[in-house]
Design brief:
Elements: H1 2-16, H2 20-38, H3 43-53, H4 58-75, H5 78-87, H6 94-111, H7 116-129, H8 135-145, H9 156-161, H10 167-170, H11 187-206, H12 215-218, H13 230-236, H14 244-249, H15 253-273, H16 279-294, H17 297-307, H18 312-330, H19 333-343, H20 350-361, H21 368-386, H22 392-412, H23 421-428, H24 437-440, H25 444-460
Length: about 475
């Protein structure tokens, strides 16, 4: 019965949820009109805010492209393919695939949200090997597994709070950093991780649809000739006679020297900063590891070319989401929303209101760091006013709980927001026709269950 209900929701999704680009355009109009109605912004000011914001995510967009293609290039190496094959060798049926992919993906996302690309490669390999897998549902499993990144080592809001000289300190809102022991190491965060690792696989196990299109059925072109391996393609590109350029293109010494430099810096980074994992260091490690595995400049170049085939969605859609962020920030719409929700908060309800704020604003600003830049100051200021008579340590705990609540709400509503599918679909959608609407319907029930569960946890669990 539950699986039939999930299939019905998926069918509704296919009928009514538009392409992710249409989603971005509609949200732009909604935010622009909301700014006109809710703030003193004029039409031209709203348009200016949109334009000024249009370029705010250029760095983040480039990071997203690089985390995708560098992670994918590692998965294309012979060593990674062999490891993935051995890892999945004991999986033989679709009913084993879905929870396996979900759990592995959630564990990988606790290390870095960018590792969703590894989960996507793993899932696609399983879909090619095992018959009877509903491929859109498998993509939903991969996408949902990424929600747990918010409790892991790359969670941007807890890392921001623990960063010296962050914008909250510079603005005088906080007087000092807040240790990750109050956030990532808290009872609340650990309990949320454990609950999600138990509940999510069970939910997706119950929701498995009967039948459905498999990856091999969806492939548009099935060639009788398999694609050349990277090594074979590199050899095919050599000149007929030995040349200096071929020797340089296909030797390893220069690439290995660069890898040695990269490994040296990575050791230095973690030995001096601890487990300071961020997008830049993850991309850097992916690049160094990819170069090491592919051995030569020619092979690594071919791997990166193959990994870059389907990144158009990220390249042209990110500026539109940045424009939405610009409207939220520069018109004051984000602050107005946060102030309104904070004004009705009490010591008992403020975590839930912060959670709802994170969930709602995420539709307009699908970036935890960007969203917190907009609503974080207002929420923290409201918490400080509510708890002004508390001892410093207890007030710090309140601020940490509110910040975590924003992060949790932001992360979970990605199930209803197809923005981060732009990371998954270039890998899992290669060679097939598939859109966000084919996937999003499968996420609604898991979202509702965990949304209620997480809401109860941020409200009642001790920090």
């Amino acid at each position: 019965m539950i699986s039939r209900f999930g299939e019905a929701l998926s069918e509704i999704s296919r009928k009514y949820i538009p392409d992710s680009f249409v989603f971005a355009l509609a949200l732009t109009i909604i935010c622009a009109v909301s700014a006109l109605l809710w703030t003193d912004t004029t039409v031209i000011e709203s348009v200016q805010a949109w334009y000024n914001g249009f370029w705010m995510l250029l760095e983040f967009g480039m990071q997203m492209v690089l985390i995708l293609i560098t992670g994918y290039s590692i998965a294309l190496s012979p060593q990674a393919k062999s490891f993935i094959y051995r890892l999945t060798n004991f999986i033989t049926s679709p009913k084993q695939v879905y929870p396996f992919v979900l759990v592995v993906g959630m564990l990988l996302s606790l290390v870095s949200w960018g590792w969703m690309v590894i989960t996507a490669v793993l899932a696609r390999e399983l879909a090619l090997r095992i018959r009877g897998i509903n491929y859109p549902y498998l993509i939903a499993c991969v996408y949902f597994s990424g929600t747990l990144w918010v409790g892991g080592l790359s969670s941007s809001i807890p890392l921001l709070l623990n960063t010296e000289g962050n914008f909250l300190i510079e603005a005088g809102i906080l007087s000092d950093t807040i240790s990750t022991s109050y956030t990532l190491g808290s009872i609340l965060n650990i309990s949320l991780i454990v609950l999600s690792l138990i509940i999510a696989p069970l939910l997706f196990r119950l929701l498995i649809p009967k039948g459905g299109p498999g990856l091999k059925d969806m492939l548009q072109e099935v060639s009788s000739v398999e694609e050349l391996s990277i090594r074979e393609e590199a050899n095919k590109m050599r000149h007929q006679v030995p040349t200096l350029s071929d020797k340089l293109n296909n030797q390893s010494i220069l690439q290995y020297l660069i890898c040695l430099m990269g490994i040296t810096y990575a050791v230095f980074h973690f030995s001096t900063r601890g487990m300071d994992i961020n997008l830049n260091i993850m991309i850097f490690i992916f690049i160094v590891l990819g170069m090491l595995l592919h051995r030569t400049p020619m092979r690594y170049g071919i791997a990166m070319k193959r990994a870059s085939r389907n990144i158009s969605g990220i390249l042209f859609q990110f500026p539109f989401y940045a424009g939405i962020m610009g409207i939220m920030i520069h018109t004051g719409l984000g602050k107005e929303l946060a102030d309104w929700m904070a004004s009705v908060g009490t010591e008992h309800t403020y975590p839930l209101l912060a959670y709802l704020s994170g969930a709602i604003v995420n539709f307009a600003i699908p970036s935890a760091g960007g969203e917190f830049a907009v609503i974080g100051p207002s929420i923290i200021t409201a918490v400080q006013e509510i708890g002004q008579d508390l001892p410093d340590q207890e007030l710090t705990e309140w601020i940490a709980r509110a910040s975590l609540s924003v992060a949790y709400g932001e992360s979970l509503t990605n199930c209803l927001q197809p923005f981060y599918l732009l990371i998954v679909l270039p890998i899992m959608g290669a060679g097939i026709r598939i859109q966000a609407r084919d996937i999003m319907g499968y996420l609604l029930i898991p979202f509702l269950v965990l949304f209620v569960g997480w809401a109860l946890m941020v409200t009642f669990l001790p920090l």
